[in-house]
Amino acid sequence: MSPTVLSPVLSPVLVPVAAPSLVPAHGVGNRADLPLPFTALVIAAVAALLISFVAVGVLWREPRLSRADGVLLPRPLARLLDSRGVRVATRVLAGILTVWTLVALVAGPDSARNPVPHVVYVWLWVGLAFLSLALGPVWRVLNPLRAAHAGLLRLARVSPDLSLLTYRGGLWPAAVGLGLFTWVELVADENTSLPFLQVLVGGYVALSLAAAAVFGRRWWDEADPFEAWSALLGRLSPLGRRDDGRWVLRTPLHGVDELRATRGLVATVSVMLGSTAYDGFSANVSWATFVQTSPIGAVPLKTMTLLLFFAAVAVTIWLAAALSMRLSGRSLRDSVHFVSDLAPSLLPIAGGYVVAHYWSLWVYQGQYAWVLLTDPLGTGANLLGTAGLTPNDALIAPTLVATIQAVAIVLGHLLAVVAAHERAVTVLPRRAAVVGQLPVMAVMLFYTFAGLTILFRP
């Protein structure tokens, strides 16, 4: 067996690679690889945000985003997207991959040769994010548990809308589920061992199907963490539908603007932002040294820090909303509603963080998963013919990765500024909207500086 290298991307996933192959972290770029000096990059990013804020404040006087916007897709492509055959084929492929992975989970080796960690932590978590950013909420189509639930209802010859209780929890279960999964990926010990993964996957499957049996398919629509992860990031997809149902290409802002306040939305966005921020922070060598020397156990300390990151995002959003209301001459009571209106505008930042933190993981380790999947039982088989595959590292050149990271962070914040302004002029009088966004702008600047510092720390 080839040497095993500890990869920080999977926290910690043990990846067998032939030395001296590169096993990239979430970002292989650093300050030395930036096309601009770090200080110049921060100044340019801050200047871009301030100029954008002033420009939209002066020129964007009323709501401009409409569901009627967009460039119509060619009819053949639109028919392909709506094709029942395409949807069935993708569901079948997702089902085959699920069964293949379950075989490895149940009967595969408890070693670095098992493909399950890569499927769970790279393909499901990271790959689903990138696919959703490109194509929209694809997990609604691919989710094998949703398909299993629907199939069971058909076999029982009952209505697909069957539920024992009315679901009213909003996105709160999704927020909790995403937080727990982040904890598993970034904090939990032995998170790639087979017994751990068997409990994790088995528990998730059992809980999800039980909840769907009680609450019906609304559980998948609102409460499932991976459907929420895909749906929220899918808001940034350039693909969308007009009011007449036609497929169009549009800006990421249109999908964000269509999202309305939902119970648990602020918590879910806070987990999405906080998890990627903690992920980058936890790769800091100084932090790792502190954890190892702290009298507090590593798991409790990391858990408390992760929760602090979640809380910090939620608190900054709430403070920005509260100060915005005060500056706008509104009561603090109104901030409860405005914080929910503001939360969708942070999705471009979350999307930018995902791209920045996970680019190198996805384009490199995503390829390596095929090497492991060809031998799910660890017997030396080559069922897919990919045993000799060597992942292409052209897309993880340090300077390229550093550039992608910097652009993703800055572009995400620029889109967030515009999205926040659109929402503000929709719910507030124009002058109040511009003045009230000053605290929001301060939060955007803080997030930009923090995000760039975490990624390109010395």
Automatic annotation (TrEMBL):
TM spans (from-to): 35-60, 88-108, 120-142, 162-184, 196-215, 306-325, 345-363, 370-389, 395-420, 432-456
Lineage of the organism: Bacteria, Bacillati, Actinomycetota, Actinomycetes, Micrococcales
Record has Transmembrane helix as a keyword: yes
Name of protein: Fenitrothion hydrolase
Keywords for the protein's UniProt record, in alphabetical order: Membrane, Transmembrane, Transmembrane helix
Highest taxon in the source lineage: Bacteria
Species, as recorded: Terracoccus luteus
Record has Membrane as a keyword: yes
